[in-house]
Write the structure tokens for this entry.
Amino acid sequence: MNTSTSTSTRAGRHYATAFAERFDLRLPLVQAPMVGATTAALAAASSNAGALGSIGAGAMTPEKIAAEVASIRAATSRAFGVNLFVLEPAAPDDATVSRALDAIDPLRAEFGLPPGHAPERYAPVFRDQLEQVIALRVPVVSFTFGVLDAADVTRLKAAGSYVIGTATHVAEGVAWRDAGADAVCAQGAEAGGHRGTVIDAERNPLVGTMALVPQLVDALGIPVLAAGGIMDGRGIAAALALGAQAAQLGTVFLPCAESAIAQDWRKRLLASSDTATSVTRAITGRYARGIRNTLMDRLEAEPARVAPYPVQNALTQELRQAAARADRGDYLSLWSGQGAALLRGRPAGCGAAELIDALDAEWRAASKRIAGCAAVE
Ligand SMILES: Cc1cc2nc3c(=O)[nH]c(=O)nc-3n(C[C@H](O)[C@H](O)[C@H](O)COP(=O)(O)O)c2cc1C
């Protein structure tokens, strides 16, 4: 068994793990990158509060990435992360696009939008984004949807970046380790948002966080971060007990004052239950977990019309943007993890710093409880 999570001390300061020490973290916590939700303000506030803040930049142009990184750097001198989607350029045939639009157009019409058409580009060019983060010398760069080759990992490291790959099962973790990644984010089935699965993706393996983290810890020999369903200090302590060096929390940050999500999304998160989410590929063409709503139901009704990611994602985008403008959560992609109902115990709309203070106190109390149980033995 790998026991790489032993605590460490630097200059009189005690760190929970080597990962926490490396980034001088008050607690072993990563504020997860989330396209559509994370902002420079959220990342900077999280880093300033002693976690590792991050932004989801998978949907950003290189120019936007540079502007966001500049905003974060203006607000904090601490480490932060930028996350990208490893994607090949999409070149769907006309039939795939028109089949998908046949299902999407009636929904667009309900928002007063004309019939959709193929966009010039389905997603930003990944290679251009990668060149940008290398040029910007971003402290932590994480990836999902694919595995980088060793040459790219080497270039990132030469630029001073710490590289984190996402794994939803052990083979993906091994692929990232062999490519030279510094750490792997173990994305359990409970996690909100898109599944990072790249190997065996059609089968949609859904390994839970509790099972995934120790299997990756044992297999890899590099730091593992635990993501999926962790909503409070109990969860952070549990992740560390499983051998993770930090917990990556996404859903718990969604209602924060600095998050970019629509009001109705916030309301639906706070009103959700343990069974409120499902994993679907109908909205974007890639499996993702979110709160069930009308958009999910209607697009799932015609599975044969769903185009692969990022085509379906681009084709449903204007509709979801119109829904956001109208604050209509029934037609948004309400990405959320299975722990969303645990948000109800927290003050609504608090800032990231207040949330991180609470998480810090909670995980310290939970760790003491665990240590107390061991002492009883
Ligand atoms: C709204 C939302 C958007 C997300 N976007 C991304 C993303 O852009 N890149 C990524 O690697 N993970 C993304 N994720 C996954 C998170 O980084 C994280 O792994 C997950 O939220 C952890 O599970 P939890 O939501 O149960 O805390 C997203 C999650 C959510 C809820």
Observations:
- The mean pLDDT is 95.
- Residues 32-37, 56, 58, 83, 144, 166, 187, 190-193, 227-230, 248-251, 335-337, 339 surround flavin mononucleotide (CB under 6 Å).
- The first helix runs from residue 18 to 22.
